[in-house]
Amino acid sequence: MKKSTLATLGVFLLLIPATLYLGTKIPGRSFYITGTLIIIELMLPFFLSFEGRKPQARELVLVAVLCAIAVAGRVVIPFPNLKAVYAIIILAGIAFGPETGFIVGAITAFASNFFYSQGPYTPWQMMAYGAGGMLAGFLFRKGWLPKEPMVMGVFGFCSVIFWIGPLLDCSHVFLMLTRITPSAVIATLLSGLYANVMLAVSTLAVLLIFGRPFLQRLDRVKTKYGILNTEK
């Protein structure tokens, strides 16, 4: 397993949970500090993915463009539970691997909240959005899932219901509940089920309709300029 892949797992499983926990202990508007720390932590696996070579400016520009498109997929669409943001993050992971998917997802959550307002939930959203791109990168880039529209659509639907959505709902569990009990956790997860289902449906639709042409364009850019080509 590559160093960048191990670093991605370490950041997701150890560093980010520790940062979220410590962030709850800091008084005041600590979410700005927590969010910044998470972005810094995400840089490690991303830059390790270059495997000893210096990243080109065009590669960083491409990541910034993907983040901007994902932000637009959340902000521009006026319907609260019908968004394209998860689909774009997933496609970034599929096209360029878990490290890029992770950082695109996390930065998208942070940047888009400047339109929706930042809050203690922001670092949790960064983790959840990044986790969606990371999982897509692992499963599709390793060849465990084919890059077919139906497969990508079903994956997107399931990842929102069983992965991204529950991770987002965990913010309510740890930030809103005065006492964490099994019944309270179940009630919190169920309360977010409707929104998760609607977001899952919109993710499914976007991946079915735009998944293949979007990937083809990203592959063309990757082949033409030889950038972010982490496939081994």
Task: Summarize the model shown.
By secondary structure, the protein is mostly helical.
β-strand percent reads under 5%
- In the predicted model, the low-confidence regions spanning at least 5 consecutive residues are none
Number of helical runs? Answer: 9
Distance between the termini: 11 Å
Q: Kindly report the oligomeric state of this protein.
A: single chain
Biggest pleated sheet: none
Please explain how this structure is put together.
Helices cover 78% and strands 0% of the residues. It is an all-alpha fold and 232 residues long. The model has no long low-confidence stretch (mean pLDDT 87).
Itemize the secondary structure elements and their pairings.
Layout: H1 3-25, H2 31-48, H3 57-75, H4 85-96, H5 98-116, H6 122-141, H7 149-176, H8 182-191, H9 193-225
Helix pairs in contact: 1-2, 1-6, 2-5, 2-6, 3-4, 3-5, 4-5, 4-6, 4-9, 5-6, 6-7, 7-8, 7-9
Structure characteristics:
mainly alpha, 9 helices, 232 residues
